């Protein structure tokens, strides 16, 4: 097998998502091809997909506008909405 191992870094993923939510235009600044499949946490993949969908549709991506787009998966003892609010 010749699979490349991509190390997971939960904190880096959280920082990326936080930056995108603080400044949606930062999505355009990502110069390497990045998809939700690159993120190790399922919840982070869902959040990234929602951000991309909203931004590419010309809408603001924030915890309020994302809520209808993401499953209410639990992260530890928190819903995704509460997880985002703590970020």
TrEMBL record:
<dbReference type="GO" id="GO:0006269">
    <property type="term" value="P:DNA replication, synthesis of primer"/>
</dbReference>
<dbReference type="Pfam" id="PF00772">
    <property type="entry name" value="DnaB"/>
</dbReference>
<dbReference type="GO" id="GO:0005524">
    <property type="term" value="F:ATP binding"/>
</dbReference>
<keyword id="KW-0639">Primosome</keyword>
<keyword id="KW-0238">DNA-binding</keyword>
<feature type="domain" description="DNA helicase DnaB-like N-terminal">
    <location>
        <begin position="7"/>
        <end position="76"/>
    </location>
</feature>
<keyword id="KW-0235">DNA replication</keyword>
<dbReference type="InterPro" id="IPR007693">
    <property type="entry name" value="DNA_helicase_DnaB-like_N"/>
</dbReference>
<dbReference type="GO" id="GO:0003678">
    <property type="term" value="F:DNA helicase activity"/>
</dbReference>
<dbReference type="GO" id="GO:1990077">
    <property type="term" value="C:primosome complex"/>
</dbReference>
<dbReference type="GO" id="GO:0003677">
    <property type="term" value="F:DNA binding"/>
</dbReference>
<dbReference type="InterPro" id="IPR016136">
    <property type="entry name" value="DNA_helicase_N/primase_C"/>
</dbReference>
<dbReference type="InterPro" id="IPR036185">
    <property type="entry name" value="DNA_heli_DnaB-like_N_sf"/>
</dbReference>
<protein>
    <recommendedName>
        <fullName>DNA helicase DnaB-like N-terminal domain-containing protein</fullName>
    </recommendedName>
</protein>
